[in-house]
Amino acid sequence: MFYQIFIFLAIFNSAFNLHPNPEKTLPKTNNIIFKTSDGGTTWDDVSAGLPQKFDAWSIFASKDEVLLGYEKGIFSASTFSSTLQWQKEIYLKESVSVIIPGQSGPYAGSYNERFFQKMSGTGVWIPVYTSLHGKTVRTIFEAKNGHVFVGCENGILKSTDKGKTWQMVFEDGMVTSFLEKDNVLLAGSSKGIIRSIDDGKLWVPVLTEDGPTYSIKIIDDQLIAISFGTRSQKDIDENTNTESNTIRRSDDKGKTWKTTYKNLSPFHYMYKMEDKQSPIRIINDIEATDKYIFCSIEKGVFRSDDHGKSWELVLPCAENTLFDLAVSGNVVYAVKVFRGC
After folding, report:
1. Residue-level pLDDT at 217
2. CA-based, 20 to 30 A from 285: which of 20, 252, 266, 339?
3. pLDDT value of residue 191
4. DSSP E strand boundaries for 29-174
5. How far apart are CA 254 and CA 204, in angstroms?
């Protein structure tokens, strides 16, 4: 009964916009998140209203709102206003390292903590899949048929009854991302890309030579994967710690993968034995609108208007930071995320 009363009060509060006014309670800041509505030609700094010391951990964008996860929850802003008005989600105080789309509203969670889902049309976040509490969950994915897949530290769990029961369907390494295209499921794992054509019952490795794969997306109706990379035999023989960060595409539903956007990759991680780390070159994120592809690397956000044949820098980035990207329609958001000392 208490839980029902809490939900009612939360919905009432959200419906009448009783959140504190961020303009009065939060100091102004800038240079955290940027927005472009013209394909990257101009970028507006839309950071005002966020705390001055704000380290974003994740970003999510829909036609209705933009969400930023950080160590103490989520800041949200409605997209119906020409300027983003940030406010703290008062019903979510846990650290949020990942925000994932869901059919009934976005999921939010952090490793080793609970997962929450936002009730559509409200500011209320409710605990979901509570039986997973205590497991190191990296990501959650809802297939089109309603089945739920959870990427864990040691494999994949699957539920066909909305999270009441779970079955382990893959047990060979950490899984951090999922994608579904034309009834084919793909996942990025610590061993590379794995693929399933039978609703996740059997998973088969299809790309292992690039090392762990942390992102799989659809760009230009093709599957695009970003991997951490592996050490070459020469590096192993010479005892150097150099890795190639790679980006590949697949035109056959993930069966085979080819190197793509060659003028952006491969880039190299270059570490020294000293405390000071040498410059890192890394492909971090990729998104697309109807006309452009946007790719975030260590120098900033690059744009291509010819399907990746050529690129131009449209949003520079400072040292030791990278941009995570999010797209809603033709609007692109780029938020700075810290990447080491």
Report:
1. 96
2. 252
3. 93
4. 33-36, 44-45, 58-61, 65-70, 73-78, 87-88, 98-100, 107-109, 115-118, 125-128, 137-142, 148-152, 155-159, 167-170
5. 11
Q: What is the value of pTM for the model shown?
A: 0.84
Pairwise CA distance, residues 165 & 172, whole Å: 21
DSSP code of 50?
B
The predicted structure's pLDDT at residue 16: 41
Q: Can you give the pLDDT at residue 281?
A: 57
302, 295 Cβ separation under 8 angstroms: yes
Chain centroid to CA 17: 28
CA distance 195 to 184: 7
What b/e string do you get for 22-33 counting C-beta neighbours within 10 Å, with b at 16 or more?
Answer: beeebeebeebb
For the chain, which ranges sit under pLDDT 50? 1-26, 242, 265-280, 341
Element (H, E) at 236: helix 233-237
